[in-house]
TrEMBL record, chain A:
PANTHER family: SMALL NUCLEAR RIBONUCLEOPROTEIN SM. GO terms for biological process: mRNA splicing, via spliceosome; nuclear-transcribed mRNA catabolic process. InterPro entries: Lsm4, LSm4/Sm_D1/D3, LSM_dom_sf, Sm, Sm_dom_euk/arc. This is LSM complex subunit LSM4. Residues 84-129 are annotated as: Disordered. It comes from Mycena maculata. Keywords: mRNA processing, mRNA splicing, Nucleus, Ribonucleoprotein, RNA-binding, Spliceosome. The gene is LSM4. CDD domains: LSm4. GO terms for molecular function: RNA binding. Belongs to the snRNP Sm proteins family. Pfam families: LSM. The lineage of its organism: Eukaryota, Fungi, Dikarya, Basidiomycota, Agaricomycotina. It is found in: Nucleus.
TrEMBL record, chain B:
Keywords: mRNA processing, mRNA splicing, Nucleus, Ribonucleoprotein, RNA-binding, Spliceosome. GO terms for biological process: mRNA splicing, via spliceosome. GO terms for cellular component: precatalytic spliceosome; U4/U6 x U5 tri-snRNP complex; U6 snRNP. The gene is LSM8. PANTHER family: LSM1, U6 SNRNA-ASSOCIATED SM-LIKE PROTEIN LSM8. The keyword Cell membrane does not apply. Belongs to the snRNP Sm proteins family. It is found in: Nucleus. Residues 1-86 form the Sm domain. LSm subunits form a heteromer with a doughnut shape. Plays role in pre-mRNA splicing as component of the U4/U6-U5 tri-snRNP complex that is involved in spliceosome assembly, and as component of the precatalytic spliceosome (spliceosome B complex). The heptameric LSM2-8 complex binds specifically to the 3'-terminal U-tract of U6 snRNA. This is LSM2-LSM8 complex subunit LSM8. SUPFAM superfamilies: Sm-like ribonucleoproteins (SSF50182). It comes from Mycena maculata.
Length: 129, 106
């Protein structure tokens, strides 16, 4: 599972962010991007020593300053489930595409082409890497 | 190309630039795939489930602080290593006294 898919799934969830300088931010994730830049709302900030606190309505944190994020344990299962669903859906959709679209651009050879015939594998998913 | 793929779903130990040691220990032998690295990306950011921090000190045994689901930025990581379950569990952490790893200073 990609770290960023976990982060994306954490939207509107509470999280703790520690910066490289040791400051921490507790809040709900509003948004994030691929640099791991994030915005939080209803934030409690602590200084490096952990003895001073600030309350912020909202804040933006540059991704490169982050040391780590701590997210709710339940998120892991949620993301795994979501990925399984997406994979199954993707499989279904691709299957439909292959059988339903044979006509388009393919040599007109008895319409649908028999299973495992020479057409099979002709128009696949690109060449892969 | 070197890859972290081989560490996925394994118990690993992480050392960070600030000297912290994070592990993903299955607290009981044969406990399910808990406490493992669940993912990583190009930048070596890693996701760890059920992680714990091992806090070393001279005048007390090793303390394990539960951290839970953790996303660590690749920038901060010094080392990732696979834990040998058998060896790790044979160690009584409470009896180990050690200097904590100092943070990197620039």
């Amino acid at each position: 599972m990609l770290p960023l898919s976990l982060l994306n799934a954490a939207q509107n969830k509470p999280m703790l962010v520690e910066l490289k300088n040791g400051e921490t931010f507790n809040g709900h994730l509003v948004n994030c991007d691929n640099f791991m830049n994030i915005t939080l709302r209803e934030v409690y900030q602590t200084n490096t020593e952990g003895d001073r606190f600030w309350k912020l309505k909202e804040c933006y944190i540059r991704g490169s300053t982050i040391k780590y994020l701590r997210v709710p344990d339940t998120l892991l299962d949620a993301v795994k489930e979501e990925q399984n669903r997406a994979r199954d859906a993707g499989r279904g959709a691709r299957g439909a595409f292959v059988s339903g679209n044979r006509g388009r651009g393919a040599p007109s050879r008895g319409g649908r082409g028999g299973r495992g015939g020479p057409m099979r594998g002709g128009r696949g998913r690109g060449r892969g890497v | 190309m070197s890859s972290l793929q081989g560490y996925v779903d394994r118990r690993v130990l992480l050392i960070l630039q600030d000297g912290r040691v994070i592990v993903f220990p299955a607290s009981k032998p044969n406990a399910n795939p808990q406490g493992v690295m669940v993912g990583f990306d190009q930048k070596s950011n890693v996701v760890l489930s059920d992680s714990k921090e091992r806090i070393y000190s001279i005048d007390a045994g090793v303390e394990e602080a539960p951290l839970g689901l953790y996303l660590v930025k690749g920038d901060m990581i010094v080392l990732i290593g696979e834990l040998d379950d058998a060896v790790d569990q044979a160690v009584d952490l409470g009896t180990i006294h050690a200097e904590p790893i100092p943070p990197i200073r620039y």
